[in-house]
Design goal:
heterodimer, A: alpha+beta, 4-stranded antiparallel β-sheet, B: about 230 residues, alpha/beta, 6-stranded mixed β-sheet, about 25% strand
Chain lengths: ~325, ~230
């Protein structure tokens, strides 16, 4: 077992000066490429370590995934509701009751002028006679109305406004403008329901934001705690690498990559959960909107939102890991 | 290489573990540090490795005063040293190759340089054929040699060893000692803490003797030096 002979033949070490020069030259030369390969190999190594305990990794990722999926799912629902609300602007109507002296020609001219405007989708003219006939049909006062000498109803222009950005305030501005027209007696917009809807949506949106912040904090804590355990598990290794001359940055790095990976996996799981949720809701929602005479479909996650979720997950993972590492790594010193 | 200027070390709630220790180890010098258990050998090595800080006195390594070095700079000083531990302190979840490569990875060497140096280092301790094995599969002597390979792979100018032959049989001990001599011959300063008095007395190197925290002897074994 004596390998001394073999070792004697190996190339002799250089003198200390040569050693140090050689070392520093080699170091300079390889520093840049070494830095990137170091990061890459550390990222892959951390990933490999996570895969060595797939169940534990999956559990942590699942908790993060659920925490991220909840606000994401709510956001998607809200987004869909808002779009649905936007679709309903087709049913928003403005009724312009014209003054008594306005003739049919004048009314039709006004109707044409209004149709040219960019904020109005369509205009429908209902003459006083038509209005009376309709009223007679629908009100059940037909016989009473027959006894009237004159038609008490004004002619009406029914406008369908084009609302940009689902903004109910815009419709109000439009109505205020129409009131100024000389032919118009009264301009009426029944949009209380629209205002209420948007107010409700805004409230829910704020609620979702609060939930998102709280769950984001939860993700930080989860990642932080997981990383703390990982640090404890690798205490010996940390001590040894510190003794060999590892900087805190070097020791910190794999744990930060853990955080990023956890965040990424959590984010991916969140996307999966949300898409499954949407898929499950698809059918009843289609039935529901069908009842309202709309062919509305729930939208899936778009690329932008998916990217946001993944980056948010990774960022939260990184920050959580950073906090844990900052708190626990400094306590581990060789003795 | 190393200079102790009347260094004392006291842990909270105890007496001085080291008191007024002064000595100098020159560049390229090899010396033993000996004395009974509890004499302060380990503490002295820990001071050099910057694991502990002196309570009083000045510590110079490589001409630099390290008495009040900041924590951030400690890793860079440690990289100029190779430290060998009695309990080897290997990472058991990594191969022999990865263990030895650790100091190079820490310093950011590229793959090619790392492989070349690790192989050279393993070759030197005679374990080149075991690079893919895990330390747990190796004998105590082999593990110690892996520890040595790791300590020299980055070509340090100072080698510290704490009881490197503590658990080894005499033949293996002599083998390990031969390795240290080899490094010393190419200019590496070597300081070995050991209580293997029999071996020390047969080698022609300087011996520093600690007793109850004091340096009580500093010289060469009789008959080893003309």
């Amino acid at each position: 077992m004596r390998k001394q002979q073999g070792t004697r033949q190996s190339p002799p070490l250089a003198s200390p000066r040569e050693l140090r020069q050689g070392a520093s030259r080699g170091h300079q030369h390889s520093r840049l490429s070494g830095y990137f390969t170091l990061h890459l190999s550390m990222a892959i190594q951390s990933l490999g370590r996570l895969f060595r305990t797939p169940f534990a990794t999956l559990m942590t990722a699942a908790v993060i995934g659920i925490a991220l999926a909840l606000p994401t799912g709510l956001h998607v629902m809200l987004d869909n509701l808002q779009q649905a609300g936007g679709n309903w602007d087709g049913s928003t109507q403005v009724s312009l009751f014209l003054k008594n002296g306005v003739s049919e020609d004048q009314a039709l001219q006004l109707s044409h002028r209004l149709e040219q405007r960019s904020d109005i989708k369509a205009v429908q003219y209902i003459s006083a006679e038509q209005a009376l006939a309709e009223f007679q049909d629908q009100s059940g006062f037909g016989a009473v109305l027959d006894n009237l000498d004159t038609n008490p109803l004004p002619s009406v222009l029914v406008l369908h406004p084009l609302l940009l950005n689902d903004d109910p305030a815009q419709a109000e501005v439009l109505v205020d403008g129409l009131k100024q027209l000389p032919e118009v007696e009264v301009a009426q917009l029944d949009m209380q329901w629209l205002k209420r809807l948007f107010a409700i949506l805004e409230t829910i949106q704020r609620g979702v934001l609060i939930i998102a912040v709280l769950l984001g904090l939860a993700v930080l804590l989860i990642v932080g705690n997981t990383i703390r355990l990982a640090i404890e598990n690798r205490r010996d290794e940390i001590v040894i690498t510190k003794l060999i001359g590892a900087t805190n940055g070097f020791i910190r790095r794999p744990f930060l990559y853990y955080g990023i990976w956890y965040g990424l996996f959590g984010g991916l799981l969140a996307l999966l959960l949300v898409d499954i949720g949407i898929w499950l809701l698809q059918e009843p929602v289609t039935r529901l909107t069908g009842l309202y005479g709309s062919s509305y479909h729930l939208g899936l996650l778009d690329f932008g939102l998916a990217t946001t979720i993944l980056s948010a997950g990774m960022l939260l993972g990184l920050v959580g890991a950073w906090i844990a590492v900052g708190r626990h790594l400094n306590h581990i010193e060789p003795r | 290489m190393i200079r102790f200027d009347s260094i004392s070390k006291r842990y909270p709630g105890s007496q001085d573990v080291l008191s007024q220790v002064s000595f100098q180890l020159n560049k390229g010098e090899m010396a033993f540090l000996t004395g009974p258990s509890g004499a302060g050998k380990s503490t002295l090595l820990k001071l050099i490795a910057l694991i502990e800080r002196p309570t009083r006195g000045q510590l110079l390594i490589g001409g630099k005063n390290l008495t009040k070095i900041s924590r951030r700079k400690i890793p860079y000083v440690r990289r100029q040293m190779g430290i060998i531990f009695q309990d080897h302190r290997l990472l058991f979840d990594r191969t022999v190759f990865d263990n030895v490569a650790l100091p190079l990875i820490i310093s950011g060497y590229n793959r090619a340089d790392t492989e070349r140096r690790v192989r050279a280092s393993l070759d030197m301790v005679g374990l080149l054929n075991k690079e893919k094995q895990y330390p747990i599969t190796l004998s105590g002597g082999e593990q110690q040699r892996i520890g040595i390979a790791r300590a020299i792979v980055h070509k340090p100018s100072l080698l510290l060893a704490d009881e490197p032959t503590g658990n080894l049989d005499p033949a293996l001990s002599w083998e390990i000692m031969g390795l240290f001599e080899q490094f010393n011959q190419v200019g590496v300063s070597v300081l070995i803490a050991s209580h293997d008095l029999d071996m020390i007395s047969r080698l022609p190197y300087r011996v520093l003797k600690l007793q109850q925290g004091q340096l009580v002897a500093d010289g060469y074994p009789k008959g080893t030096r003309a």
